[in-house]
Amino acid sequence: MNRHLRGAAGLLIATLAASPAVAAPLAKAESAQITGDIDRLSPALSALATDIWNYAEVGFHEQKSAARLQKELKQAGFQVETGVDGMPTAFIASAGKGGPVIALLAEYDALPGLAQAADADRHPIEGQRAGHACGHNLLGSASVGAAIALKKWLERTGTPGTVRLYGTPAEEGGFAKVFLVRDGYFKDVDVTLAWHPGDRNSASQSQMLSVISGKFLFEGLPSHAAAAPERGRSALDGVEIMNVAVNYLREHVPQETRIHYTITNGGDQPNIVPASAESFYYVRHYDPEVVKDIWGRVTKAAEGAALATGTKVSVRLIGGTYSTLPNYTLGRIADRHLRDLGGFTYSPEEQAYAARLKANLPPGGRAGGGPDSVEPFVEGRKGPASTDVGDVSWATPTLQISTATWVEGTSPHSWQAVSASGTSIGNKGLVLAAKTLALTGAELFRSPDEIAAARAEFEAGRGKDFHYTALIGDQPPALDYTDHK
Protein backbone atom coordinates (compact mmCIF):
# COMPACT_ATOMS: atom_id res chain seq x y z
CA MET A 1 0.00 0.00 0.00
CA ASN A 2 1.47 3.38 -1.00
CA ARG A 3 1.86 6.29 1.38
CA HIS A 4 -1.32 8.05 0.22
CA LEU A 5 -3.49 4.99 0.77
CA ARG A 6 -1.83 4.46 4.15
CA GLY A 7 -2.72 8.05 5.00
CA ALA A 8 -6.36 7.62 3.96
CA ALA A 9 -6.65 4.33 5.84
CA GLY A 10 -5.19 6.03 8.90
CA LEU A 11 -8.04 8.52 9.09
CA LEU A 12 -10.29 6.18 11.06
CA ILE A 13 -7.42 5.35 13.42
CA ALA A 14 -6.71 9.04 13.85
CA THR A 15 -10.34 9.79 14.57
CA LEU A 16 -10.53 7.09 17.22
CA ALA A 17 -7.14 7.76 18.79
CA ALA A 18 -7.11 11.55 18.93
CA SER A 19 -7.97 13.15 22.25
CA PRO A 20 -11.42 14.75 22.24
CA ALA A 21 -11.33 18.42 21.31
CA VAL A 22 -12.17 20.77 24.14
CA ALA A 23 -14.82 22.95 22.57
CA ALA A 24 -15.06 26.65 23.30
CA PRO A 25 -18.54 27.34 21.99
CA LEU A 26 -19.43 30.86 21.07
CA ALA A 27 -21.91 32.63 23.28
CA LYS A 28 -25.31 33.04 21.67
CA ALA A 29 -24.82 36.79 21.59
CA GLU A 30 -21.49 36.37 19.74
CA SER A 31 -23.02 33.99 17.21
CA ALA A 32 -25.89 36.40 16.68
CA GLN A 33 -23.47 39.25 16.06
CA ILE A 34 -21.56 37.23 13.46
CA THR A 35 -24.68 36.08 11.63
CA GLY A 36 -26.12 39.60 11.90
CA ASP A 37 -22.98 41.00 10.27
CA ILE A 38 -23.45 38.59 7.36
CA ASP A 39 -27.16 39.40 7.09
CA ARG A 40 -26.24 43.07 6.79
CA LEU A 41 -23.61 42.16 4.19
CA SER A 42 -25.97 39.91 2.22
CA PRO A 43 -27.20 42.55 -0.27
CA ALA A 44 -23.59 43.43 -1.12
CA LEU A 45 -22.63 39.75 -1.32
CA SER A 46 -25.57 39.00 -3.62
CA ALA A 47 -24.60 41.91 -5.85
CA LEU A 48 -21.01 40.65 -5.87
CA ALA A 49 -22.11 37.13 -6.86
CA THR A 50 -24.41 38.49 -9.57
CA ASP A 51 -21.65 40.62 -11.07
CA ILE A 52 -19.27 37.65 -11.22
CA TRP A 53 -22.07 35.48 -12.66
CA ASN A 54 -22.48 38.06 -15.44
CA TYR A 55 -18.73 38.31 -16.08
CA ALA A 56 -18.51 34.50 -16.55
CA GLU A 57 -14.74 34.51 -17.10
CA VAL A 58 -12.84 31.26 -17.73
CA GLY A 59 -9.77 30.07 -15.85
CA PHE A 60 -6.80 32.45 -15.60
CA HIS A 61 -8.81 35.15 -17.43
CA GLU A 62 -10.92 36.27 -14.44
CA GLN A 63 -9.64 39.85 -14.39
CA LYS A 64 -13.01 41.49 -13.67
CA SER A 65 -14.05 38.84 -11.16
CA ALA A 66 -10.79 38.99 -9.21
CA ALA A 67 -10.83 42.79 -9.18
CA ARG A 68 -14.43 42.83 -7.93
CA LEU A 69 -13.65 40.47 -5.04
CA GLN A 70 -10.55 42.48 -4.15
CA LYS A 71 -12.57 45.70 -4.10
CA GLU A 72 -14.92 44.30 -1.45
CA LEU A 73 -12.02 43.12 0.68
CA LYS A 74 -10.09 46.37 0.42
CA GLN A 75 -13.18 48.34 1.40
CA ALA A 76 -13.45 46.10 4.48
CA GLY A 77 -9.86 46.92 5.46
CA PHE A 78 -7.97 43.88 4.17
CA GLN A 79 -4.43 44.14 2.86
CA VAL A 80 -4.47 42.63 -0.64
CA GLU A 81 -1.52 41.21 -2.60
CA THR A 82 -2.28 40.70 -6.30
CA GLY A 83 -0.72 38.66 -9.10
CA VAL A 84 0.47 36.03 -6.63
CA ASP A 85 2.85 33.25 -7.71
CA GLY A 86 2.96 34.32 -11.34
CA MET A 87 -0.83 34.11 -11.78
CA PRO A 88 -2.31 37.51 -12.72
CA THR A 89 -5.77 36.74 -11.28
CA ALA A 90 -4.56 35.13 -8.04
CA PHE A 91 -4.49 37.20 -4.86
CA ILE A 92 -4.15 36.96 -1.08
CA ALA A 93 -6.08 39.21 1.32
CA SER A 94 -5.11 39.39 5.00
CA ALA A 95 -6.46 40.96 8.19
CA GLY A 96 -5.74 40.61 11.89
CA LYS A 97 -2.50 40.04 13.75
CA GLY A 98 -0.77 37.15 15.46
CA GLY A 99 -2.62 34.14 16.77
CA PRO A 100 -3.67 31.22 14.57
CA VAL A 101 -3.84 31.76 10.82
CA ILE A 102 -7.18 30.62 9.39
CA ALA A 103 -7.48 30.58 5.61
CA LEU A 104 -10.57 30.78 3.41
CA LEU A 105 -10.62 29.83 -0.26
CA ALA A 106 -12.29 31.83 -3.03
CA GLU A 107 -12.89 30.55 -6.56
CA TYR A 108 -14.41 32.58 -9.39
CA ASP A 109 -13.83 30.89 -12.77
CA ALA A 110 -16.65 29.87 -15.11
CA LEU A 111 -16.91 26.91 -17.48
CA PRO A 112 -16.71 27.27 -21.28
CA GLY A 113 -19.66 26.26 -23.42
CA LEU A 114 -22.28 26.66 -20.70
CA ALA A 115 -23.68 30.17 -21.03
CA GLN A 116 -27.26 30.19 -19.74
CA ALA A 117 -29.79 32.79 -18.59
CA ALA A 118 -31.10 32.65 -15.01
CA ASP A 119 -34.22 30.94 -16.31
CA ALA A 120 -35.82 27.54 -15.61
CA ASP A 121 -35.83 26.68 -19.32
CA ARG A 122 -32.82 26.28 -21.60
CA HIS A 123 -31.90 29.75 -22.83
CA PRO A 124 -28.23 30.11 -23.84
CA ILE A 125 -26.91 33.68 -23.77
CA GLU A 126 -26.02 34.65 -27.31
CA GLY A 127 -22.43 35.76 -27.74
CA GLN A 128 -21.35 34.58 -24.27
CA ARG A 129 -18.80 31.79 -24.09
CA ALA A 130 -19.03 30.56 -20.50
CA GLY A 131 -21.33 30.13 -17.53
CA HIS A 132 -21.00 29.50 -13.79
CA ALA A 133 -21.99 25.83 -13.95
CA CYS A 134 -20.13 25.08 -10.71
CA GLY A 135 -21.36 28.14 -8.84
CA HIS A 136 -17.96 29.73 -8.34
CA ASN A 137 -19.57 33.16 -8.46
CA LEU A 138 -21.29 32.15 -5.21
CA LEU A 139 -18.25 30.35 -3.81
CA GLY A 140 -15.90 33.31 -3.91
CA SER A 141 -18.55 35.74 -2.69
CA ALA A 142 -19.51 33.67 0.38
CA SER A 143 -15.86 33.21 1.34
CA VAL A 144 -15.39 36.98 1.14
CA GLY A 145 -18.44 37.45 3.37
CA ALA A 146 -17.10 34.96 5.94
CA ALA A 147 -13.67 36.62 5.89
CA ILE A 148 -15.15 40.07 6.50
CA ALA A 149 -17.34 38.77 9.34
CA LEU A 150 -14.34 37.07 10.96
CA LYS A 151 -12.28 40.26 10.70
CA LYS A 152 -15.03 42.21 12.45
CA TRP A 153 -15.31 39.55 15.16
CA LEU A 154 -11.54 39.55 15.80
CA GLU A 155 -11.59 43.33 16.16
CA ARG A 156 -14.72 43.40 18.30
CA THR A 157 -13.50 40.74 20.74
CA GLY A 158 -9.79 41.59 20.73
CA THR A 159 -9.00 37.96 19.90
CA PRO A 160 -5.51 37.43 18.44
CA GLY A 161 -5.59 35.81 15.04
CA THR A 162 -5.14 36.29 11.31
CA VAL A 163 -7.82 35.67 8.71
CA ARG A 164 -6.44 35.18 5.22
CA LEU A 165 -8.45 34.76 2.02
CA TYR A 166 -6.78 33.10 -0.96
CA GLY A 167 -8.18 34.16 -4.33
CA THR A 168 -7.55 31.05 -6.41
CA PRO A 169 -8.31 31.18 -10.13
CA ALA A 170 -8.83 28.38 -12.63
CA GLU A 171 -10.10 25.63 -10.33
CA GLU A 172 -11.73 24.08 -13.40
CA GLY A 173 -8.52 22.74 -14.90
CA GLY A 174 -5.75 25.24 -14.18
CA PHE A 175 -5.48 24.21 -10.51
CA ALA A 176 -4.03 27.42 -9.07
CA LYS A 177 -4.08 26.07 -5.50
CA VAL A 178 -1.58 23.38 -6.45
CA PHE A 179 1.01 26.00 -7.38
CA LEU A 180 0.31 28.00 -4.22
CA VAL A 181 0.79 24.89 -2.07
CA ARG A 182 3.88 23.79 -3.98
CA ASP A 183 5.47 27.22 -3.65
CA GLY A 184 4.90 27.54 0.08
CA TYR A 185 1.99 29.98 0.34
CA PHE A 186 0.15 27.76 2.86
CA LYS A 187 3.14 26.87 5.05
CA ASP A 188 2.04 29.01 8.03
CA VAL A 189 -1.70 28.27 7.82
CA ASP A 190 -3.20 26.49 10.83
CA VAL A 191 -6.61 25.60 9.34
CA THR A 192 -8.26 26.10 5.95
CA LEU A 193 -12.03 26.54 5.57
CA ALA A 194 -13.73 25.97 2.23
CA TRP A 195 -17.15 25.26 0.77
CA HIS A 196 -18.79 24.39 -2.52
CA PRO A 197 -22.23 25.01 -4.04
CA GLY A 198 -24.51 22.00 -4.34
CA ASP A 199 -28.11 20.81 -4.12
CA ARG A 200 -28.05 20.02 -0.38
CA ASN A 201 -26.70 21.27 2.95
CA SER A 202 -23.97 19.06 4.33
CA ALA A 203 -20.80 19.19 6.42
CA SER A 204 -19.80 15.58 5.68
CA GLN A 205 -16.19 15.36 4.55
CA SER A 206 -15.44 13.39 1.39
CA GLN A 207 -12.35 11.95 -0.23
CA MET A 208 -12.31 13.33 -3.77
CA LEU A 209 -10.49 11.94 -6.81
CA SER A 210 -6.88 12.70 -7.64
CA VAL A 211 -6.36 13.81 -11.25
CA ILE A 212 -3.70 14.46 -13.88
CA SER A 213 -4.60 16.35 -17.06
CA GLY A 214 -2.72 17.27 -20.19
CA LYS A 215 -2.88 18.00 -23.89
CA PHE A 216 -1.55 15.75 -26.66
CA LEU A 217 -0.47 17.69 -29.74
CA PHE A 218 -0.04 15.65 -32.92
CA GLU A 219 1.84 17.12 -35.86
CA GLY A 220 1.70 15.68 -39.36
CA LEU A 221 2.06 16.84 -42.96
CA PRO A 222 -0.61 18.87 -44.79
CA SER A 223 -1.66 17.95 -48.30
CA HIS A 224 -4.67 18.05 -50.61
CA ALA A 225 -6.99 15.38 -49.23
CA ALA A 226 -8.21 14.36 -52.72
CA ALA A 227 -5.45 15.27 -55.17
CA ALA A 228 -2.44 14.11 -53.13
CA PRO A 229 -3.53 12.27 -49.95
CA GLU A 230 -0.49 9.99 -50.11
CA ARG A 231 1.76 12.98 -49.47
CA GLY A 232 0.01 13.92 -46.24
CA ARG A 233 0.21 12.54 -42.71
CA SER A 234 -2.93 13.27 -40.72
CA ALA A 235 -2.48 14.61 -37.21
CA LEU A 236 -6.19 13.98 -36.69
CA ASP A 237 -5.64 10.29 -37.44
CA GLY A 238 -3.10 10.31 -34.62
CA VAL A 239 -5.63 11.81 -32.22
CA GLU A 240 -8.33 9.34 -33.22
CA ILE A 241 -6.11 6.25 -33.02
CA MET A 242 -4.90 7.39 -29.60
CA ASN A 243 -8.53 7.69 -28.49
CA VAL A 244 -9.26 4.16 -29.72
CA ALA A 245 -6.23 2.80 -27.85
CA VAL A 246 -7.22 4.57 -24.63
CA ASN A 247 -10.80 3.33 -24.95
CA TYR A 248 -9.47 -0.25 -25.05
CA LEU A 249 -7.30 0.59 -22.04
CA ARG A 250 -10.44 1.29 -19.98
CA GLU A 251 -11.00 -2.48 -19.57
CA HIS A 252 -7.67 -2.85 -17.80
CA VAL A 253 -7.61 -0.16 -15.14
CA PRO A 254 -8.77 -0.21 -11.49
CA GLN A 255 -12.52 -0.01 -10.98
CA GLU A 256 -12.65 3.56 -9.65
CA THR A 257 -10.64 5.05 -12.53
CA ARG A 258 -12.16 7.76 -14.70
CA ILE A 259 -10.67 8.75 -18.07
CA HIS A 260 -12.24 11.44 -20.25
CA TYR A 261 -11.15 13.61 -23.14
CA THR A 262 -12.14 16.15 -25.72
CA ILE A 263 -10.66 17.00 -29.12
CA THR A 264 -9.64 20.63 -28.87
CA ASN A 265 -8.35 20.88 -32.43
CA GLY A 266 -9.40 18.54 -35.23
CA GLY A 267 -8.06 20.41 -38.23
CA ASP A 268 -9.49 23.17 -40.39
CA GLN A 269 -11.49 21.71 -43.27
CA PRO A 270 -11.99 18.28 -44.85
CA ASN A 271 -10.06 18.88 -48.08
CA ILE A 272 -6.82 19.52 -46.16
CA VAL A 273 -4.99 16.67 -44.45
CA PRO A 274 -4.75 18.07 -40.90
CA ALA A 275 -1.18 19.08 -40.09
CA SER A 276 -2.03 19.72 -36.44
CA ALA A 277 -4.56 18.21 -34.05
CA GLU A 278 -4.91 18.11 -30.29
CA SER A 279 -6.75 16.21 -27.57
CA PHE A 280 -7.18 17.15 -23.91
CA TYR A 281 -7.24 14.26 -21.37
CA TYR A 282 -8.12 13.80 -17.70
CA VAL A 283 -7.19 10.67 -15.71
CA ARG A 284 -8.69 10.27 -12.23
CA HIS A 285 -8.50 7.85 -9.30
CA TYR A 286 -8.53 8.23 -5.52
CA ASP A 287 -4.87 7.17 -5.31
CA PRO A 288 -2.45 9.60 -7.01
CA GLU A 289 0.04 6.78 -7.56
CA VAL A 290 -2.55 4.93 -9.65
CA VAL A 291 -3.24 8.14 -11.58
CA LYS A 292 0.46 8.54 -12.38
CA ASP A 293 0.67 4.93 -13.59
CA ILE A 294 -2.39 5.20 -15.86
CA TRP A 295 -1.22 8.57 -17.18
CA GLY A 296 1.98 6.86 -18.28
CA ARG A 297 -0.06 4.23 -20.13
CA VAL A 298 -2.18 6.93 -21.82
CA THR A 299 1.05 8.61 -22.93
CA LYS A 300 2.25 5.31 -24.41
CA ALA A 301 -1.03 5.07 -26.35
CA ALA A 302 -0.29 8.50 -27.82
CA GLU A 303 3.23 7.47 -28.78
CA GLY A 304 1.87 4.32 -30.46
CA ALA A 305 -0.70 6.35 -32.38
CA ALA A 306 2.01 8.69 -33.63
CA LEU A 307 4.11 5.72 -34.78
CA ALA A 308 1.13 4.18 -36.56
CA THR A 309 0.24 7.38 -38.44
CA GLY A 310 3.70 8.72 -39.26
CA THR A 311 3.11 11.79 -37.09
CA LYS A 312 4.83 13.28 -34.07
CA VAL A 313 3.25 13.82 -30.67
CA SER A 314 4.18 16.05 -27.76
CA VAL A 315 2.59 16.05 -24.31
CA ARG A 316 1.90 19.18 -22.30
CA LEU A 317 1.01 18.57 -18.68
CA ILE A 318 -1.75 20.99 -17.66
CA GLY A 319 -2.61 20.06 -14.10
CA GLY A 320 -2.52 17.49 -11.35
CA THR A 321 -4.16 17.38 -7.95
CA TYR A 322 -4.16 15.09 -4.96
CA SER A 323 -7.29 13.48 -3.59
CA THR A 324 -8.73 15.35 -0.62
CA LEU A 325 -7.70 14.34 2.89
CA PRO A 326 -10.89 14.61 4.99
CA ASN A 327 -10.73 16.12 8.46
CA TYR A 328 -13.63 14.89 10.55
CA THR A 329 -12.68 17.02 13.55
CA LEU A 330 -13.33 20.15 11.51
CA GLY A 331 -16.35 18.56 9.84
CA ARG A 332 -18.09 17.91 13.14
CA ILE A 333 -17.55 21.50 14.29
CA ALA A 334 -19.01 22.86 11.05
CA ASP A 335 -21.85 20.35 11.16
CA ARG A 336 -22.89 21.64 14.58
CA HIS A 337 -23.02 25.23 13.34
CA LEU A 338 -24.79 24.27 10.12
CA ARG A 339 -27.48 22.43 12.12
CA ASP A 340 -27.90 25.34 14.50
CA LEU A 341 -28.45 27.63 11.51
CA GLY A 342 -30.72 25.15 9.77
CA GLY A 343 -31.60 25.34 6.11
CA PHE A 344 -33.73 27.93 4.37
CA THR A 345 -37.05 28.03 2.56
CA TYR A 346 -38.08 29.10 -0.91
CA SER A 347 -40.38 32.04 -1.58
CA PRO A 348 -43.48 31.31 -3.72
CA GLU A 349 -41.61 32.64 -6.77
CA GLU A 350 -38.60 30.44 -6.00
CA GLN A 351 -40.90 27.42 -5.56
CA ALA A 352 -42.39 28.03 -9.00
CA TYR A 353 -38.93 28.39 -10.55
CA ALA A 354 -37.70 25.21 -8.83
CA ALA A 355 -40.69 23.20 -10.04
CA ARG A 356 -40.09 24.31 -13.65
CA LEU A 357 -36.37 23.61 -13.42
CA LYS A 358 -36.94 20.14 -11.94
CA ALA A 359 -39.06 19.28 -14.98
CA ASN A 360 -36.00 20.03 -17.13
CA LEU A 361 -33.53 17.89 -15.15
CA PRO A 362 -32.28 14.69 -16.79
CA PRO A 363 -33.07 11.41 -15.00
CA GLY A 364 -30.65 9.89 -12.52
CA GLY A 365 -30.19 12.68 -9.98
CA ARG A 366 -29.56 11.90 -6.34
CA ALA A 367 -32.64 11.65 -4.16
CA GLY A 368 -33.09 13.84 -1.12
CA GLY A 369 -31.39 17.10 -0.40
CA GLY A 370 -33.03 20.47 -0.78
CA PRO A 371 -32.67 23.75 1.05
CA ASP A 372 -34.69 23.20 4.24
CA SER A 373 -32.75 20.34 5.84
CA VAL A 374 -29.18 19.35 6.74
CA GLU A 375 -27.84 15.97 5.61
CA PRO A 376 -26.66 13.51 8.30
CA PHE A 377 -22.96 13.80 9.09
CA VAL A 378 -21.23 10.79 7.51
CA GLU A 379 -17.61 9.64 7.69
CA GLY A 380 -15.81 7.61 5.02
CA ARG A 381 -17.66 9.14 2.09
CA LYS A 382 -16.04 9.20 -1.36
CA GLY A 383 -16.80 11.94 -3.85
CA PRO A 384 -16.94 11.40 -7.63
CA ALA A 385 -15.15 14.61 -8.68
CA SER A 386 -11.80 16.36 -8.26
CA THR A 387 -10.67 19.69 -6.83
CA ASP A 388 -7.38 21.47 -6.25
CA VAL A 389 -8.52 21.84 -2.64
CA GLY A 390 -7.01 18.35 -2.49
CA ASP A 391 -3.45 19.67 -2.39
CA VAL A 392 -4.42 22.23 0.26
CA SER A 393 -5.85 19.43 2.41
CA TRP A 394 -2.45 17.68 2.44
CA ALA A 395 -0.76 20.95 3.47
CA THR A 396 -3.16 22.11 6.23
CA PRO A 397 -6.14 20.62 8.09
CA THR A 398 -8.97 21.49 5.70
CA LEU A 399 -12.75 21.68 5.91
CA GLN A 400 -15.12 21.71 2.95
CA ILE A 401 -18.90 22.01 3.34
CA SER A 402 -21.75 22.34 0.86
CA THR A 403 -25.00 24.31 0.83
CA ALA A 404 -28.10 24.04 -1.34
CA THR A 405 -27.47 26.76 -3.89
CA TRP A 406 -29.08 24.66 -6.64
CA VAL A 407 -32.47 23.01 -7.04
CA GLU A 408 -32.65 19.48 -5.64
CA GLY A 409 -31.31 16.95 -8.17
CA THR A 410 -29.17 19.44 -10.11
CA SER A 411 -25.71 18.25 -11.06
CA PRO A 412 -22.67 20.50 -11.39
CA HIS A 413 -21.43 21.43 -14.86
CA SER A 414 -24.97 21.68 -16.18
CA TRP A 415 -26.98 24.59 -17.57
CA GLN A 416 -29.40 24.13 -14.67
CA ALA A 417 -26.56 24.84 -12.23
CA VAL A 418 -25.65 27.98 -14.19
CA SER A 419 -29.24 29.16 -14.00
CA ALA A 420 -29.70 28.62 -10.25
CA SER A 421 -26.30 30.19 -9.51
CA GLY A 422 -27.66 33.44 -10.92
CA THR A 423 -30.86 33.48 -8.84
CA SER A 424 -31.97 34.35 -5.31
CA ILE A 425 -31.85 30.62 -4.51
CA GLY A 426 -28.11 30.64 -5.11
CA ASN A 427 -27.76 33.78 -3.00
CA LYS A 428 -29.60 32.20 -0.05
CA GLY A 429 -27.20 29.25 -0.15
CA LEU A 430 -24.30 31.73 -0.32
CA VAL A 431 -25.43 33.41 2.91
CA LEU A 432 -25.84 30.07 4.71
CA ALA A 433 -22.31 29.03 3.66
CA ALA A 434 -20.82 32.36 4.77
CA LYS A 435 -22.46 32.08 8.19
CA THR A 436 -21.34 28.48 8.71
CA LEU A 437 -17.74 29.24 7.76
CA ALA A 438 -17.61 32.39 9.89
CA LEU A 439 -19.03 30.67 12.99
CA THR A 440 -16.67 27.72 12.52
CA GLY A 441 -13.70 30.06 12.11
CA ALA A 442 -14.58 32.12 15.19
CA GLU A 443 -14.89 28.97 17.32
CA LEU A 444 -11.48 27.76 16.11
CA PHE A 445 -9.87 31.11 16.89
CA ARG A 446 -11.32 30.80 20.37
CA SER A 447 -10.26 27.17 20.91
CA PRO A 448 -6.60 26.16 20.43
CA ASP A 449 -7.54 22.64 21.58
CA GLU A 450 -9.83 22.18 18.58
CA ILE A 451 -7.11 23.35 16.19
CA ALA A 452 -4.68 20.95 17.89
CA ALA A 453 -7.15 18.08 17.52
CA ALA A 454 -7.65 18.86 13.83
CA ARG A 455 -3.87 18.99 13.39
CA ALA A 456 -3.42 15.64 15.17
CA GLU A 457 -5.96 13.99 12.86
CA PHE A 458 -4.31 15.64 9.87
CA GLU A 459 -0.83 14.37 10.82
CA ALA A 460 -2.11 10.84 11.48
CA GLY A 461 -3.99 10.85 8.16
CA ARG A 462 -0.94 11.89 6.17
CA GLY A 463 1.29 9.34 7.89
CA LYS A 464 4.74 9.94 9.34
CA ASP A 465 6.51 9.14 6.05
CA PHE A 466 4.47 11.53 3.91
CA HIS A 467 6.36 14.07 1.81
CA TYR A 468 4.40 16.36 -0.47
CA THR A 469 5.49 16.46 -4.10
CA ALA A 470 3.21 18.26 -6.54
CA LEU A 471 1.89 16.11 -9.38
CA ILE A 472 2.60 18.96 -11.81
CA GLY A 473 6.30 18.96 -10.94
CA ASP A 474 8.10 22.28 -11.28
CA GLN A 475 6.27 23.58 -14.34
CA PRO A 476 4.64 27.04 -14.28
CA PRO A 477 0.85 27.48 -14.41
CA ALA A 478 -0.69 26.84 -17.82
CA LEU A 479 -2.21 30.31 -18.10
CA ASP A 480 -3.48 29.61 -21.63
CA TYR A 481 -5.04 26.18 -21.01
CA THR A 482 -8.53 27.40 -22.02
CA ASP A 483 -7.23 29.01 -25.22
CA HIS A 484 -7.92 26.16 -27.62
CA LYS A 485 -6.39 26.43 -31.05
What can you see in these coordinates?
By secondary structure, this protein is of the alpha/beta class. It folds into two domains: 3-207 and 323-462, Aminopeptidase; 210-320, Alpha-Beta Plaits (2-Layer Sandwich). The chain is built from 13 helices and 16 strands. It has helices spanning 3-17, 28-55, 63-75, 136-157, 176-182, 235-249, 288-309, 328-341, 348-359, 389-393, 415-421, 424-446, 448-462; strands at residues 79-82, 91-97, 101-106, 111-112, 130-131, 161-167, 191-198, 200-201, 206-207, 210-219, 258-265, 276-285, 312-321, 370-374, 381-382, 398-404. The strands form five sheets. The chain has a six-stranded mixed beta sheet. Strand 1 (79-82) and strand 2 (91-97) form a beta hairpin.
Distinctive features:
single chain, 485 residues, alpha/beta, Aminopeptidase, Alpha-Beta Plaits, 2 domains, six-stranded mixed β-sheet, four-stranded antiparallel β-sheet, 19% strand, dipeptidase activity
Alpha-carbon distance between the termini?
41 Å
The global form is globular
What helical percentage do the residues reach? Answer: 40-55%
Proportion of residues in extended strands? 15-25%
Mean pLDDT figure: 94
Q: Using DSSP, what is the number of strands?
A: 16
Return the CATH topology of the largest domain.
Answer: Aminopeptidase
Largest sheet: 6 strands, mixed
The helix count comes to: 13
Helix vs. strand class: alpha/beta
Q: Do you know the CATH architecture of the largest domain?
A: 3-Layer(aba) Sandwich
CATH class of the largest domain: Alpha Beta
SSE string, helix = H, strand = E? HHHEEEEEHEHEEEEHEEHEHHEEHEHHH
Structurally, how many domains make up the residues? Answer: 2
**CATH H level, superfamily name of the largest domain:** Zn peptidases
Strand order of the largest sheet: 1-2-6-3-7-16
Low-confidence stretches: 1-21
What would you report as the Rg, rounded to the nearest angstrom? 23 Å
